[in-house]
Records
---
Amino acid sequence: MAEPPIDDLTRTLGRSFALVVAVVCVGVVGYLIIGWPEYGVLDAVYMTIITLTTVGYGEIIDLSASPGGRVFTVLLLVSGVGSFLNFVSALTAFWVDGQAHHLLWRNRMSRQLVQLSDHIVVCGAGDTGIWVCRELLDTKRPFAVIEANAERAHRLRRELGVEVPTVIGDATDDDVLIRAGVERAESVVCCVSNDKDNLIVALSARILTGDARIICRCVDESMAPKIRRAGADQVVSPNRIGGLRMVSEAIRPAAVVYLDRMLRDRDAGMRVESARIEAGSTLDGQTVGALRRHGTGLQLLALRRADDRWEDAPPDDASLQVNDQLVYTGGPVVRKAVERLVRGG
């Protein structure tokens, strides 16, 4: 179920209120004409309100000698009561149906989304998307979610235990991507249920972002090359990952247990991370030993050189250069410290 546009949520209430205002204005103008010049605007307003609310107070403008005034009052009373009942009914429905709560929630989400930058946009909060969100939450990374199904989007908050910036809409729509801040995003994760939709999201995100990293879920392996050509940096097959995991359980169970323990430790948030040394970084020209002496607490596993060469377990005298990528283990505190070091001036 897609999120109804904000105009659809308030249109009925707005029309009902506009009708009440129109009836009040007609009543004030009518009584001004009937009572002029003896009676003024305040008298006309008073007559209009007591007529529309049927409170039964005494008349300020004497209509005993004005048949036309009495006819006008009858017409105003009939139309006014109908307009008020219509407005009260619309207002009641607006609150009872949860539309007011939804409107407040959506405005709150909009404010949070505007503040995001260098975040990750997760397209789809289904069975795969919710695990993506859990991992981003555990590792304390900023992210936003796009989900077309309103019930599923609200269920996400209950599943995660916290409220995350969410846009309810179709991720294949450019406007929805823009509302999620895709133009300011660091990465886009496309995990909607349909491979063709993932292809469209990847293409749209690539056009809107330019250099953001785009990762797509793909069930049908024959669609993977098309999704890559559409703009995805990586295509992940759940079937392939599941198969590799099952084999690993059979031939390297201890390694799998170690990685699972790392992923389950939600408090420490220990993960295998990577970071690229940018131009102007203090690490440029230093050695691996100097990096370790910075006291970040990282455990360096490997270096991926700028020319795509890999150096596993690099020694302390190995030099670091711009565009080298550090592959290490650490929690959120370690990751932030390393990100400060690799960032250019």
---
Amino acid sequence: MSELEFNPVANIFPLMQGAEYNQLKDDITANGLLDSIWLDTEGRILDGRNRCRVCLDVGVEPQYRTYEGDDELKFVISKNLHRRHLSESQRAVVASRLANMPAHRIDNKSANLPTSISQTQAASMLNVSERSLRTVKAIERDAPELIERIESGEITAHEAQKEIKLQQRTEARAEIAKVGASVMPDNRWHIYQGDIATWQAPRKYDFIITDPPYPKEYLPLWETLAKRASEWLKPSGLLIAMSGQSYLDEIYQLLSKHLEYYWTACYLTPGQPTPLRQVNVNTTWKPLLVYSNSKYTGKIFGDVFKSDGNDKSYHKWGQSESGMCDIISKICLEGQYILDPFCGAGTTGIASLRNKCLFDGLDIDGENVKISQGRIANDTEAD
């Protein structure tokens, strides 16, 4: 028996690989071929490519049947969806392949079938959302090498998309860090590398505006921040720290050991809500915790601020430039000095300088320091 040609419609589904193929081989070896291999009227395999491969591998004589209906595509899809138990992501890859097929590759005999398959039709045929299909299309464009891993079930389309974004962020960080390594700060700003617990500030600050890490293991940093802020702030200055909500009660207590509670403001984060699955809450805002060193004497400010959208391009915990600009423009005066001791990728610095404030940034990570320097330098040059 020689291996037969495949009908193009059959090839919209991936061939079995690895454990899945070995299970089919073991079953046919033990029980024989229980399901016939379907051929089209030209003698090509329409359904049963994997069964044909196993028969060739183990020496089992295949049984053939000829499909004489008028809708080969519908036949192949129904057979495979019933048999393969493909995930949403795997079906989306098939739908994308189907939508890519030129009209002449769709071998059907029915005048009722379309001469080409749109993305909407392909999604419907494979029982997937159009959003999933669009995600796969984007992966095919940006990282086609990941499609095979989705087909095999190793990763989902969502996980592949996250890998792409991580790679893009890594490349962007590396590029801006290369620029930042040779940047000389000017008299309006400086980025320092150091540990918040031991760093010696060169001056006192009107405001400390920062976004410390939120996970539970970083809770001790909040007390360290409060203690150092009490040393770094001017008597009339404020600490304004963005916080998550999961450990908010503990954070209030830690900050209050060294500073005076002043206010809690609201930072709106429109767009996709952040799910806090441990408490079954989708959150669209963050607390801005405001603490004073003694008596605040600055300008009156509102207590609701807004970001136009997330920006994780340079740091996985990064905040948007629009959000930080909203905070600084509504609270700080031109010429005042701002410190961010968890400066990350330097967004607070960019917002400070755009609002004609002075800025010092601190980060323990040398790569973050270079990225901050590169971003701030680029932004100030653009101005």
